[in-house]
Amino acid sequence: MTSMFSRSLANAIFRRNITRTPCIRTLHTSRPVLNASGALNNILEGVALPVQVKTVTARGIHLVDGMILPSACIFLDAKVFLWNVPEKLWEGWEKKHFEIFEMVVPKPEILLFGTGQRVAVLPPALHQYLRQTGIQVDVMDTRNACSTYNLLAEEGRQVAAALLPMSPKSWRTA
Known about the structure:
By secondary structure, this protein is α/β, with parallel strands linked by helices. Helices cover 25% and strands 20% of the residues. The chain has a domain at 53-163: 3-Layer(aba) Sandwich (Hypothetical Protein Mth938, Chain: A). It is built from 4 helices and 8 strands; from the N terminus they run αβββββαβαβαβ. The chain is globular and about 90 Å long.
């Protein structure tokens, strides 16, 4: 008896729902916001898209936009800077090669240092100098530094990369 009652109740509810007219919902949109000149505001204006690396080869660092960087460079605040450093790793390197990280505001929370084809430990004096600026430094080969940079930049993190090419080249001759 209860199953017959529940079946008839379910049928009644089902029939009532079928015979109802469908509810028409309107699409809710927000009003466009106009700036002082009467033009629409660009919500992406001022938002810098991060630099993205496509691949790293012997020719240089290939960016997603097609640019090839054949020499040392720095990715900082969605910009690319050519980096004038000595061609021989750690010979003639001084604090002046890292001064850009002292001046930039906001400072990156992490600096990925790509040392070329192989990982080369940063000299203690340079490592100490960078730590005093308040930036965490991770040293790795350039391929891994680029892929880590892509990941962290995509997450929206304050990340910078100082990258050496796979084979040493001066930016003046590259």
